[in-house]
Amino acid sequence: MSRRRFLLRRSLLQRSAALPLVAIARSTAQAAEPARLWNGFSAPVGMGFDRRGLLYVAEWSAGRISRIAPDGGRSIFAEGLEGPAGLAVGPDDALYVGSYARSEVYRFTIDGRRTVHVTGLATPAGLAFDRAGRLLIANRATNEILAVTGENRIEPIIRDLNTPVGMVQTPDGGHVVANIAGGVTIVGPDGSRRDAGQAFRAPGAGVVLTPTGQVFVADYGGTTVREILMNGSSRAIADGLSSPVGLVVAPDGQSLLTATWGDGAIYRIVLADG
């Protein structure tokens, strides 16, 4: 299966040595240029932290999951995958990874043992967990958000989207969905919908909710990470990125990490107070 079916372009990746972790400050008046932490990744997409503070990165082109320790040490956690895209750490601290090419989701224990968790999907992209502990899947080819219920049954919870690649549940029980070819959709708990993607070129799989209830989405087709406001607008909190696609809240709750498809790197964005 062509890798271009998930993301619309691929740039040359930088493979130089890892860079030190550097915090950045951001003005509330305009977006700042993020700080690069590490590079040398092969089309990074999904990211997630486990309870020990280990960061996992799905590398689409390399077919592997890399792991970064709190001290910056890097290792390969799993390899031999086909188009790993979405990645989420579950309430059980297991790692869940979507294979876009094979249309299934895997579950990894902390020691790297892999089992097939869900099959019968259609180009799954972003993964997330809702407040009830259910795994959510952006099933791109069917334009649905799916929930995995008991005994790994699949239940559509949002239909009739436009190429969904990422989502998150909001504190009120609604959802924010990133559609790579159709903007950002705010779905209320009552099912109402509002478009918040006017400023995006092509939203990526990276959609996150912070401990304070803020929602952020990476603009894969552009250069920004943007905060989604529930009135349907958005604002850039970081700029100057090369096709940002992955996004995760750091363990401190005060910063985001974003993975960039264009230069194969991970950057840190410090969130402003308030």
Automatic annotation (TrEMBL):
UniProt keyword list: Signal
Domain of life: Bacteria
Segment forming the signal sequence: 1-31
Presence of keyword Ubl conjugation: no
Keyword Oxidoreductase: no
InterPro entries referenced in this protein's UniProt entry, alphabetically: 6-blade_b-propeller_TolB-like (IPR011042), SMP-30/CGR1_Lactonase (IPR051262), TAT_signal (IPR006311)
Positions in coiled-coil regions: none
PANTHER family the record matches: LACTONASE DRP35, LIPOPROTEIN-RELATED
The protein's name: Uncharacterized protein
Organism: Enhydrobacter aerosaccus
